[in-house]
C-alpha cells in the first residue's frame, strides 16, 4: 500500500505576535529573524495517521510531498524521521505566490507522477492560513473520493474506514481506494522521532521536482494561475475602553455595575 502525506512548512505558531511584521507593499509576512519555520501541526497528525496504517498493513510505503522553497526540506525530513520512506519537494519559482487551487493542482500532478498511490492523507488545514481547501482540491483534481476532518483512519479489505468529526458527534464512512483524507487534531499527538531516526532522515535524499518535471504550464501554477486575489494583509489592532466601577462597599460596587450593564442594555 502506497500512502502519500502532504506536508507544509509554516511560520512557527509559537512566535510572539509582537514579532510579526507585514510588508504592506508586497502584502506578505516578513520572516522573523532567528525563528525557523516548522511543519504544520495538522500535517504532523496526517503523517501519524499514515504511519499507523503502515504499521498495520504489510509491504506499505509512505511518501511525503511538500510544495515550497528549499527550506521546506526540513518539514520533509521531520516526517521522514517519524517513519516515512521517501520525500519529494516541489520547488520552482513558478510555484511562488499561489493559492489553495494552484497548490492542489501542483500536488495532484506530483501524485499522478508517482503513479502507484493508494491514498493521500493531508492535515485538515494549514495552521497559517487555515483555508482547509487543498485536501479536497487534490481529490477533485484526481477524481478520487474524499473525506475531511477524520479522527481515525483504518485500512480494511482494500478500503479505508474513516471516522469523521461532525458538529454533533461522529460518523464512520467506508472509502474505496484510491482516496483522499484530511486528518483533524482529534487523531491525537503525533509520535516524536528518536535521535537515531533523526540522524537517518538527515542522510536521506529528497527528490526535487519543478513545474516542468510535472508537465505543468507555468501559467497554471503559482501567482499566474491563482484564483484568489489578496487585497490587503494587516495586523489586528488591539485596544479597548476600561470603566472603573466606583463604590465604598462591595455591595455598592455591585449595584453600580448592575446599573452600568442595564444602561448599556446588556441586562
Provide the succession of SSEs.
EEEEEHEHEHEHEEEEHEHH
Low-confidence stretches: none
- The CATH topology label of the largest domain is Rossmann fold
The total of beta strands comes to 13
Question: How many domains make up the coordinates?
Answer: 2
What would CATH call the architecture of the largest domain? 3-Layer(aba) Sandwich
Distance between the termini: 61 Å
- Level-1 CATH class name of the largest domain: Alpha Beta
Shape: globular
- Proportion of beta-strand residues: 25-35%
Structural class: alpha/beta
Helical amount among residues, as a percent range?
A: 25-40%
Rg is: 23 Å
CATH superfamily of the largest domain: HUPs
Mean pLDDT: 93
The major sheet is characterized as: 9 strands, mixed
Widest beta sheet: strand line-up: 11-10-9-12-8-1-6-7-13
Total DSSP helices: 7
Description:
There is one protein chain. The chain contains seven helices and 13 strands. By secondary structure, it is of the alpha/beta class. The protein folds into two domains: 2-225, HUPs (Rossmann fold, 3-Layer(aba) Sandwich), CATH 3.40.50.620; 240-267. The model has no long low-confidence stretch (mean pLDDT 93).
Provide the descriptors you would attach to this structure in a database record:
Rossmann fold; 29% helix; 267 residues; 2 domains; nine-stranded mixed β-sheet; alpha/beta; two-stranded antiparallel ribbon
Topology of helices and strands:
Blueprint: E1 2-6, E2 9-10, E3 21-23, E4 28-30, E5 38-39, H1 41-56, E6 61-67, H2 73-82, E7 86-90, H3 100-114, E8 119-123, H4 134-142, E9 146-156, E10 159-166, E11 169-176, E12 179-183, H5 195-203, E13 207-209, H6 222-225, H7 250-263
Parallel strand pairs: 1-6, 1-8, 6-7, 7-13, 8-12, 9-12
Antiparallel strand pairs: 2-5, 3-4, 9-10, 10-11
Helix pairs in contact: 2-5, 3-4
Amino acid at each position: 500500500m502506497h500512502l502519500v502525506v502532504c506536508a507544509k512548512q509554516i511560520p512557527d505558531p509559537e512566535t510572539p505576535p509582537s514579532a510579526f511584521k507585514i510588508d504592506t507593499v508586497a502584502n506578505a509576512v516578513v520572516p522573523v529573524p532567528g525563528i525557523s519555520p516548522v511543519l504544520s501541526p495538522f500535517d504532523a497528525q496526517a503523517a501519524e495517521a499514515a504511519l499507523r496504517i503502515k504499521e498495520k498493513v504489510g509491504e506499505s510505503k509512505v511518501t511525503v510531498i511538500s510544495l515550497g522553497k528549499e527550506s521546506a526540506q526540513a518539514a520533509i525530513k521531520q516526517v521522514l524521521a517519524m517513519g516515512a520512506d521517501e520525500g519529494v519537494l516541489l520547488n520552482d519559482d513558478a510555484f511562488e505566490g499561489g493559492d489553495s487551487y494552484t497548490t492542489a493542482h501542483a500536488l495532484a500532478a506530483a501524485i499522478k507522477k508517482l503513479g502507484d498511490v493508494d491514498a493521500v492523507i493531508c492535515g485538515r488545514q494549514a495552521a497559517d492560513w487555515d483555508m482547509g481547501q487543498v485536501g479536497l482540491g487534490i481529490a477533485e483534481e484526481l477524481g478520487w473520493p474524499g473525506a475531511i476532518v477524520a479522527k481515525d483512519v483504518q485500512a480494511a479489505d482494500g478500503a479505508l474506514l474513516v471516522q469523521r468529526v461532525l458538529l454533533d458527534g461522529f460518523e464512520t464512512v467506508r472509502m474505496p481506494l484510491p482516496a483522499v483524507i484530511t486528518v483533524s487534531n482529534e487523531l491525537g499527538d503525533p509520535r516524536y522521532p528518536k535521535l537515531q531516526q533523526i540522524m537517518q532522515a538527515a542522510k536521506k535524499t529528497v527528490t526535487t521536482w519543478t513545474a516542468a518535471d510535472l508537465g505543468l504550464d507555468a501559467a497554471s501554477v503559482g501567482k499566474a494561475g491563482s484564483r484568489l486575489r489578496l487585497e490587503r494583509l494587516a495586523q489586528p489592532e488591539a485596544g479597548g475602553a476600561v470603566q472603573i466601577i466606583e463604590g465604598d462597599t462591595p455591595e455598592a460596587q455591585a449595584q453600580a455595575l448592575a446599573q452600568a450593564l442595564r444602561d448599556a442594555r446588556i441586562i
